[in-house]
Design a protein that fits this description.
Shape: globular
Number of helices: 8
Strand content: 15-25%
Protein name: Alkaline phosphatase family protein
Order of helices and strands: HEHEHHEHHEEEEHEHEEEEEEE
CATH topology of the largest domain: Purple Acid Phosphatase, chain A, domain 2
Pfam families: PhoD
Strand order of the largest sheet: 4-5-8-9-11-10-12
Number of domains: 2
Distance between the termini: 60 Å
Keywords: Signal
Structural class: alpha/beta
Largest sheet: 7 strands, mixed
Radius of gyration: 22 Å
Number of strands: 15
Mean pLDDT: 93
Helix content: 25-40%
CATH superfamily of the largest domain: Alkaline phosphatase D (PhoD)
């Protein structure tokens, strides 16, 4: 009996070791990404954010703020500055800031007013406070332009990555309220209505057309492809969505990927655009410290997979040589809540 037990134990150990070796071999087959992007939005400095250590463990090449970095909702410039300063005192974020480049944009709550746009009275002053928080030099061109939009170029041995950061607040036209109590806003077909404003549109077209990057990531604080839910979205300005798709298509830019936040949910949206040789993906990651936990569903004809209503952040692993992107919605302690792989 004892001998049989020993044989059985040895067999179990052999199978366990063999399975582990097979898993290791399978893991080794997956090439390491050439460039890692981490991003997220909807962050309250006074609320616990469990992700900063997890984000560091992904060894990202850049962290991108997708907006709502803080919840200020104020037209008091000094109060706005104080609330940003609170975020800098968060230990986990301070460590990330020391080890990883930090870039990004704002959304309504760090802009200063919920669902705010071009008519916000202190938008120019708010811009300077935002740029201070982001560590933008005093002599930067961004200090003199209207809006916080900019681009960042990264080069690694395998190729190049460009991150284009949009400002969907400073120039955005007035939203049209919907009479339907289940929806906040409705689309407008007014050809003069805008999200980006003329100068930013011109700049964006040039950035994409002149880009020689292997991947071009566009950070929009609000969703682009999910436009049916009745909250803030590019879908409230259908002509602007069409314009963006045309600019991407006509530019010839490689590997354009859209990142977004704002919604307190995370999801993948994907659309085929006529004339574009690859699908357009909009990866929404939101929120970091609070989420739409009572989410019960909403339409999105472009959704891939399911909505994640838990707190989360986004990871994008770019394999430049193989022209492939791996998108991951991440939970606490390295949990992958959902993923999507796309070739370009």
């Amino acid at each position: 009996m004892k001998q049989s037990y020993l044989i059985l134990a040895a067999l179990v150990l052999f199978i366990s070791c063999k399975k582990k070796a097979e898993q290791t071999t399978e893991s080794q087959k997956q090439p390491a990404p050439d460039f890692v992007v981490a991003f997220g939005s909807c962050n309250m400095s006074q609320e616990p954010n469990p992700f900063w250590d997890d984000i560091l463990s992904e060894y990202p090449d850049v962290w991108i703020w997708g907006g709502d970095i803080v919840y200020a909702d104020t037209d008091d410039v000094e109060r706005l500055r104080t609330i940003y300063a609170m975020q800098d005192t968060v230990a986990g974020y301070a460590k990330l800031r020391k080890e990883v480049p930090i870039i990004g944009t704002w959304d309504d709550h760090d802009f200063g007013v919920n669902d705010g746009g071009s008519d916000f009275a202190i938008k120019a002053e708010s811009q300077q406070v935002f740029l201070d928080f982001m560590g933008v030099p005093e002599d930067s061109e961004r200090r003199n332009q209207e809006g916080v939009y900019t681009s960042h170029d990264y080069e690694v041995p395998a190729g190049k990555v460009k991150v284009i950061v949009l400002d969907t607040r400073y120039f955005r036209s007035e939203l049209i309220k919907d009479e339907d109590s289940n929806r906040r806003y409705k689309p407008t077909m007014d050809s003069t209505a805008t999200i980006l404003g003329n100068a930013q549109w011109e700049w964006l077209g040039k950035e994409l057309k002149e880009s020689d990057a292997d991947f071009n990531l566009i950070m929009s604080s609000i969703q682009v492809l999910s436009g049916e839910h009745g909250f803030e979205t590019w879908g409230n300005f259908p002509l602007e969505v069409e314009k963006l798709e045309n600019i991407i298509k006509q530019s010839g830019a490689k590997g354009v990927i859209i990142l977004s936040g704002d919604r307190h949910i995370s999801e993948f949206s994907r659309a085929d655009v006529d004339g574009l040789s690859y699908p357009l993906v909009d990866f929404t990651s939101s929120g970091l410290t609070h989420s739409y936990f009572s989410f019960s569903g909403e339409p999105n004809q472009h959704r891939v997979g399911e909505v994640v209503s838990d707190k989360s952040y986004g990871i994008i692993n770019l394999n430049i040589e193989e022209k492939r992107a791996e998108f991951k919605i991440m939970g606490d302690n390295g949990t992958v809540l959902q993923e999507l792989k796309q070739s370009y």
